[in-house]
Write a structure and sequence with these properties.
Radius of gyration: 13 Å
Number of strands: 4
Low-confidence stretches: none
Helix content: 25-40%
Strand content: 15-25%
Structural class: alpha/beta
Shape: globular
Mean pLDDT: 88
Order of helices and strands: EHEHEHHEH
Number of helices: 5
Largest sheet: 4 strands, parallel
Length: about 120
Amino acid sequence: MERGVLTLAVKKPVYGNMAYNLAVSIKLPNPDVKVQLICDDEAISELSEEQKEIFDILTPVEGKYADMNPGELKVNMYDLSAFFGGTLFIDADSIMFPTSDINRLLGTLSGYGYQ
C-alpha cells in the first residue's frame, strides 16, 4: 500500500521553504513515503527545480480554490488530495525528527479513520 503525506503551502515563499524542509525530514528516514504538496506559484517561487523534486506530487491551487485562504484550503484538502493508501496531513511548519518512522505511524493508524 502506497502511503503518503499531504502538506500545504500558499501565499508566501516562507511556507514553500517550510514544506521543503518538512519533505526532506520525512524522506530522509522514509524514502518510500510519498509527499504531496498543494501549493500556489507564490509559495514555491524561491524553491529551485531540484528542491521541487523532493515532492512526489505538486498540486497547484487553481480554479475555485485559488482565492481561498489557507484555512479554507485545509477544509477542502480532500478535494485536492492524491488519496494515497494511507494519507496523513501535516502542516508545513512542522518537521519530523530524523529518528521518526512515519511508516510505523501510518501502519498504526491503518484501518482507522483519523484526523
